[in-house]
Amino acid sequence: MEQLAKKTVRDIEIEGKRLLCRVDFNVPLDKKSGIISDDKRIRGALPTIRYILDKGGKLILMSHLGRPKGVGYQEEFSLKPVAERLEELLGRPILFAQDVIGEDAKRKAKELATGQVLLLENLRFHKEEEANDPGFARELASMAEIYVNDAFGTAHRAHASTWGVANFLPAVSGFLIEKEIAVMGKALANPERPFTAILGGAKVSDKISVIENLLNKVDNLLIGGAMAYTFLKAKGKEVGISLVEDDKLALAKELLEKAEKKNVAFYLPEDHLVAKEFSADAEAIVSEEIGAGFMGMDIGPKTQETYSELIASSGTVVWNGPMGVFEFPSFAKGTESIAKALAEADTISIVGGGDSAAAVESFGLTEKITHVSTGGGASLEFLEGKSLPGIDNLEDQVKKKLLAGNWKMNLGSPKAGRKLLEALLVLEHEFVHDVLIAPPFTALADLLKLTGNSKIKVAAQNCHFAEKGAYTGEVSPQFLAAMGVYHVILGHSERRKFFAETDELIRQKIEAARSFGLRPIVCIGESLEEREAGETFAKVEKQVAAALNNLPEKDLPFIILAYEPIWAIGTGKTATPEQAEEVCAFIRTLCEKYAGKEVAGRMKILYGGSVQPVNAKELFAQKNIDGALVGGASLDSEAFMAIAKA
Questions:
Q1: pLDDT one-digit tens code per residue, 399-412
Q2: Is residue 42 domain-resident?
Q3: Residues 173 and 197 in one domain
């Protein structure tokens, strides 16, 4: 899985620097006393915190607590008790800010000494946090030099503190996230076999994507919980008054058929614990059938035995969702049997957060499981194969290629753009690189909704240099960032030619884009006349200098340069791989001049200019070509996929 190889705090220089670390301190508080009743989330962050302090860092921690709904300070949701408990656990003073991005927070962050820790007040006192407001993210980032995400439980949310900040600062993971993606990632990408997945919970609809993704990976799929009754009814079994999603019966049949075609052993309960009413006091009756007037409440003893035997014979087991109504003691036996089987088996056992993790803990078996995830929703989306924003935006250990499709002034109607994007989304699991599409402005909003947490990102084709104002027909970088767009193409040769955009104007746009966290794809290149006159390098150097000179050092890693020889755009002509590499290598030396060798090595340099399936492989094989900016071929899903596979 491509999102696994992320940089961690081990990969950065920490001494003397301020680090802004997102942690998950969303701990339960007793309503009357305000005392923390369970501090395991605080304890989970200690290894990362201690490492940063031991390496001479100045640490700023940020978290949310509860659901204060972004309406300002509320004492019951204050992180003050967390600061006090962290101080006890860490054995050193913890500074506490009375606000998040206000005067108190910024002053204390600025005055931090080496080895000191500052905890900001509850992020969710600000509505801008969950809205992923770029201005709020920028203010958070202004207090530090490095961003660390160690909150796996919120990694599936594109919030300002989990996604937005990483657009302004070098971004790495802490040890908690490192462990999550290492253990769960290996299980999905290269599991010890047989690979068994156990899924429970109430609804098939909650697990559709998980099941579909796992059918491509597992050997055995064990189903429990109320979702089992939908599958049983789809097979023609009587399920009494059990919870069933009748509108998902056809889908359940389809999933069963897919499992059969893929030779995945699909197990459903052989027997059940049934009751006449949904109540903790209801009489639990063991039955192989669910008769009229009865509802299934848990898997029965035969099923418990079968599932336990399968677990014992497996190399890897992933479990997400209880087998029954485990909150009621009479109907907790099925869930407990799975937990015990996992604890006793000689297998790699992974429990995917949420209710499953709570169940394992309630049975006192947490220490006997290989890995219990700290994130319910995040682990579920991980199992679905989705891209997790809070992880996706961290820096890669090994630089990935970037394939960007520029639709130009084509497919601007939502219907046309949607059709092409849907064709790509069907195949997105085949992408091993970063993929962007840049549709016209009219299609941005619709396609952003369609991509969601997919591996395909949406970019803009241009932006203005002003935040707002009397610029009829223009689009502000602020608007794009607020929409959830994080890449923008600037300085394209067609903009330079038809709209007389100068190097100076493009520089202004780059600065404006960076002020809102956008990642510019800056196009540079020479005309045929300039190439024939031997002016290629002089032209390219002038454009690169205009783009990079005087940019703040922290912004340079976010700049992507795209070499597009004008004579090869839309002409059918293409620079040979050697010609393209020669100029891209020269661009790399210019990046080193402005950014230094280390940062220049992280910056991406793309090639664009009649990139097609027939020439993509040779182009991508060049040392200094990190991907492509594709025009015409991006309008055809098959051609675009062929380039991606190259």
A1: 999 999 999 999 99
A2: yes
A3: no
Domain boundary pick from 346, 376, 407: 346
The answer as to whether 309 is a domain residue is yes
Residue 307 has pLDDT above 90, yes or no: yes
Element (H, E) at 89: helix 80-90
Please name the residue that has the structure tokens 């290996």.
Answer: 186
The two tokens of residue 6 are: 């992320």
Task: Kindly state whether residues 160 and 198 are assigned to the same domain.
Answer: no
Whether residue 24 contacts residue 45, with contact meaning beta carbons closer than 8 Å, is answered with: yes
Show the DSSP H helices in 501-576 as ranges: 503-515, 528-532, 536-548
Q: Is 357 inside a domain boundary?
A: no
d(CA 255, CA 262): 11
CATH number at residue 517: 3.20.20.70
pLDDT at 429 over 90: no
Closest of 316, 403, 325 to residue 351, by C-alpha: 316
Sheet with 220-223: list strands edge to edge. Answer: 265-267, 220-223, 195-199, 316-320, 348-351, 371-372
For the segment 368-382, the average pLDDT, to the nearest whole number, is 91
Is residue 352 situated within a structural domain? no
Which pTM value belongs to this model?
0.93
> Residue 202: pLDDT band by 50, 70, 90 thresholds?
confident
71-86 per-position pLDDT tens digit = 999 999 999 999 999 9
Q: Which of 34, 100, 95, 94 has the alpha carbon at shortest distance from 73?
A: 100
pLDDT digits (tens, 9 = 90+) for 433-459: 999 999 999 999 999 999 988 889 999
d(CA 236, CA 253) in angstroms, rounded, equals 10
Separate counts of helices (H) and strands (E) for the chain: 25, 23
What amino acid is encoded at 542 in this protein? Answer: K
Residues 487 and 566 in one domain: yes
Residues serving a catalytic function are 492, 564
Range in 135-144, 204-213, 563-572, 621-630 with the lowest mean pLDDT: 563-572
**Structural domains of the chain, count:** 3
Q: How far is CA 581 from CA 501, 565, 578, 621, in A?
A: 26, 12, 5, 10
**Structural domain boundaries, residue 102:** 9-180
Q: Check which CATH number belongs to the domain holding 231 and give it.
A: 3.40.50.1260
Tell whether 502 and 610 lie within a shared domain: yes
Average pLDDT, the chain: 95
pLDDT band at residue 377 using 50, 70 and 90 as cut-offs: confident
Q: Give the C-alpha separation, 135 to 625, whole Å.
A: 33
Residues 592 and 525 occupy one common structural domain: yes
Task: Give the tens place of pLDDT for each residue, 105-129.
Answer: 999 999 999 999 999 999 999 999 9
User: How does strand 272-275 pair with strand 285-287?
Assistant: antiparallel
If asked whether residues 468 and 560 sit together in one domain, one would say yes
- Residue 250 has what pLDDT? 97
- Find the angle CA(437)-CA(442)-CA(448) to the nearest 5 degrees: 50
Q: What single DSSP character describes residue 158?
A: -
- Do 270 and 316 lie in one domain? The reply is yes
One domain, residues 114 and 205? no
